[in-house]
Amino acid sequence: MAGSGYTDLREKLKSMMPYRDGHKGGGGGSLPREPPDPSYDRKRRHQEDSGSEPSDYEEQKEEEEARKVKSGIRQLRLFSAEECAKIEARIEDVVSRAEKGLYKEHTVDRAPLRNKYFFGEGYTYGSQLQRRGPGQERLYPRGEVDAIPEWVHDLVIRKLVEHRVIPEGFVNSAVINDYQPGGCIVSHVDPIHIFERPIVSVSFFSDSALCFGCKFQFKPIRVSEPVLFLPVKRGSVTVLR
């Protein structure tokens, strides 16, 4: 996380909106996402009823969108199976420590099928926000989440720097997303007023996928076909610009 022209990102956020130092976040919630298109469900029902296929124009538009998304993505296979196993053991230790209540309150965020562990910096989002919508996310006051563990610096960040994925000193926030089988996260944009780009993600434990351009509906949860489906292998690094 970073903010250009400010020595402390909190100064930048205060200039945008007064920061509520007394704010306490609630439980788990979805990451911020764009407001749903109110016409989507209507269009979808019409297409299902009529049996019509997407027009050439719609297909071209989706292909162009997928091309633009893909142009901002870089993937590297940096971590061997042995390195993955070593890091995964450390992640299991984080989970164990969290279950024993050994972390600060805002280090751990629990949601169905997904637990999130903030280190270095943490922020409010989703149902924790007093006002909903993109741009309302705020950092917790300094010290309310635990520091980045040394093993993250030694086993993960150092390798990213050595391979010139990121410059030295770029990382001041590390987040572990621990997904259970069937777990996922809804479409969202990491807050642009909090996160400097690129967003760097490293995957462990199993292969997975990132999907772009999905529209979600809930109760029951349903999702549209993605504009871009990106396979993510165990031990791979995904750089999102």
TrEMBL record:
Which cofactors is this protein said to need?
Fe(2+)
Q: Which InterPro entries match?
A: AlkB-like_sf, ALKBH5
Record keyword Nucleotidyltransferase present: no
Where are the residues of the annotated region Disordered?
Answer: 1-69
Where is there biased composition of kind Basic and acidic residues? 8-24, 34-49
Q: Name one GO cellular component term.
A: nucleus
Gene3D superfamilies, A to Z: Alpha-ketoglutarate-dependent dioxygenase AlkB-like
What family is this?
Answer: Belongs to the alkB family.
PANTHER family, sorted: RNA DEMETHYLASE ALKBH5
What's the protein name? ALKB5 demethylase
Organism classification, top ranks? Eukaryota, Metazoa, Chordata, Craniata, Vertebrata
